[in-house]
Amino acid sequence: MPLETLKKRAEFLRVRGGARWSSPSATLETRMRQHPDQALAVPRFGFTVTKKLGGAVDRNRIRRRLKAAVMELAAEHARLGHDYVLIAKPLALSRPYDELKKDLEVAFHRVHHARPAKRPRPPTGTTR
RNA sequence: CCAGUCGGCCGGACGGCUGCUGGCCCCGCCGCCCGCAAGGGUAAAGCUGGGCUGGAGGAAAGUCCGGGCUCCAAGGAAGCACGGUGGCGGCUAACGGCCGCCGGGGGCAACCCCAGGGAAAGUGCCACAGAAAGCAAACCGCUCUCAGCGCGCAAGCGUCGCGAGCAAGGGUGAAAGGGUGCGGUAAGAGCGCACCGCGCGCCUGGCAACAGGCGUGGCAAGGUAAACCCCACCGGGAGCAAGACCAAAUAGGGGUGGCCAGGCAUGAUCGGUUCGCCGCUCGAUGCCAGGUUGGUUUCCUGACCCGCCACCCGGGUUGGUUGCACGAGGCGUUGCGCGAGCGGCGUCCCAGAUGAAUGGCCGUCGCGGAGGCAACUCCAGACAGAACCCGGCUUACAGGCCGACUGGUAAA
Fold first, then answer.
1. Confidence class for position A80, pLDDT limits 50, 70, 90
2. What are phi and psi of A14, to 5 degrees?
3. Alpha carbon distances (Å) from A128 to A13, A82, A86, A124, A125
4. In the Cβ-directed half-sphere of A36, how many Cα atoms lie within 13 Å?
5. How far is the CA of A87 from the C1' of B64 (A)?
6. How far is A55 from A76, CA to CA, in rounded Å?
7. Residues A69, A104: contact at Cβ < 8 Å?
8. N or C: which end of chain A has fewer CB within 10 A?
9. pLDDT at position A117 over 70
10. Is the pLDDT of residue A128 over 70?
């Protein structure tokens, strides 16, 4: 199954308001989809690789490595109805692939369990 | 073999597991058609499974020139302004590119470099230094006449001053008004002569830039045009987020019409006719129906605003399709040309994403460096990522390959 990706700036901005956790390779953010009937939708991912990290060649490679790792991990760790955004760090280019995956596994775990402890937020996406 | 010059090329290879994307195809489901049925057919979009095949660069980069293509503007033009180009000839769709040649400069040479039109059209500028930087001028000087003084028997010599002549030497400068030499002179000076340079004229060669020769002038004409400027040639503007099309839903905009006065029957006119009738138009008679919609204004007719309905038009947003992959195309071969290139023939179809695919991980080998006799071990692997396409330029680049030529050295 092809990876569903975020395509609009507004979608990225919305996820920025959710839970986040930083690993050495990248920062992971997540937030539930807005409408209740999307609670069982397949998770979607967005990748942010800023120009600060290098030229087009390096940034392409970083994005592809992160994407490959996510595709391996998504089935087990990503939750339905969630959107995820990965913000790459410089280490994402040079870190051994196994460690990169471990970073993301930890990030998935932390970002799911940190949520209730943070500032109160409605458990499901509501429009209030 | 060493040193060097020029041109061309490559930019790791193979394999395994697992993905993305374009194209083509197959099986099945759903749909539609045929059929009583079994089954068959079809296929726009979609779903599941599968197969085959294509998928980053020499610079994809910088976005500096030139084109194609699209829209806009306009008179298919010309001019002005502005910008660009600048030896000559050629190549090209075009160019500020390329090729050949000319001129100047550099190198022993192969070869390299040049923004290389005009300074007697005009204007400006030429710092500092220097007397003087454009019109010729004279600081130290050089020469001569005369007068004074000193020395000397005298010829004369020295010195100072006035006047006249000169620009060789010194000095300043990036540059001081042709250079070198000889003659000449009081000293000098193109004043004269020779050679070189320069200007002008003619002749010869060349398409031309230009070169060579002859004659002549007698030096008159400094530099700067990446200073203004003059001359010649070129250029309309904006760009694929150009432009074209489709589909939705919501809100809103514009226009037109309506929110009533007519309808039916009989009759007549004209046209058609299958002679049954049908259609058009007209007024007469009869029958049926009716007096409008919120606000403002007005005595009323009416006017204006709003509302509702129908149709049409245009714009915005979102999504999709197209533009968009057959082209000044690649490869091979052949003819012409010194060459850039041009032509013929054969053959191939070769990335098309759009939060943006062309990958991720691993192994083996090869290349380069270091260590080691070796097996081997450890490092390193550049510059850099298509976005409408093409021709160039410029810039970046680890490492490597091929060819031609030059100067040495050695051997034959």
1. confident
2. -65, -45
3. 19, 19, 28, 11, 9
4. 6
5. 37
6. 33
7. yes
8. C
9. no
10. no
- The amino acid that residue A33 corresponds to is R
DSSP assignment letter at A120: -
Task: Report the interhelical angle of A97-113 vs A56-77 (nearest 10°).
Answer: 60
Q: How far apart are CA A52 and CA A43, in angstroms?
A: 28
**pLDDT tens per residue across span A95-111:** 888 888 889 999 998 88
Is the C-beta of residue A7 closer than 7 Å to nucleic acid chain B?
A: yes
Q: How many CA atoms lie within 13 A of A95 on its CB side?
A: 21
Nucleotides of B under 7 A from a protein CB: 19-21, 56, 60, 319, 355-362, 384-386
pTM for the whole thing?
A: 0.70
DSSP secondary structure, A27-51, as one string: EEEEEE-SSGGGTTSPPEEEEE--G
- What domains are there in chain A, each with its CATH number? 9-117 (3.30.230.10)
